[in-house]
Amino acid sequence: MSNRWDGCIKLHENCGGLVRWVEAVHTPGVGYFGECIGCGESDLVVEEIVPVEVPDGERIAEFKERAGGIGRDAVSWDDESDWDANQERLQEQIA
Ligand SMILES: [Zn+2]
């Protein structure tokens, strides 16, 4: 969980569900896992979570609601692109 994720919503890759952090109380050395509200999968690691920055002037609740409608195929992180390019693509899909 880097600071870069601050101000981001989190989506489950290839699922599209919203992810929340859950304290990993049973796993020494691990601070938090992701838990997908959409499919219920837990123990998600950062590689399975797609962060999307909430654009300036956008309300986080509304952005989350719209993000729920973009479809599972759209929720992916392109490792070939950098952070900004990924953000641009994902934000466009949600907009
Ligand atoms: Zn999911």
Largest sheet: 2 strands, antiparallel
Which structural category do the helix and sheet elements fall into? alpha+beta
In helices, the fraction of residues equals: 10-25%
Rounded to an integer, what's the Rg over CA atoms?
13 Å
User: How many β-strand stretches?
Assistant: 4
Shape: globular
Mean pLDDT across all amino acids = 91
Separation of the first and last Cα atoms: 25 Å
Spans of at least 5 consecutive residues whose pLDDT stays below 50 are: none
The DSSP helix count reads 2
Q: For the largest beta sheet, what order do the strands appear in spatially?
A: 1-4
Protein model, in words:
The protein is of the alpha+beta class. It has one domain (8-94). The protein has helices at 60-67, 83-94; strands at 8-12, 19-23, 32-36, 49-53. The strands form two sheets. It has a two-stranded antiparallel sheet. Strand 2 (19-23) and strand 3 (32-36) form a beta hairpin. The longest helix is centred in the C-terminal third of the chain and has 12 residues, at 83-94. The mean pLDDT is 91.
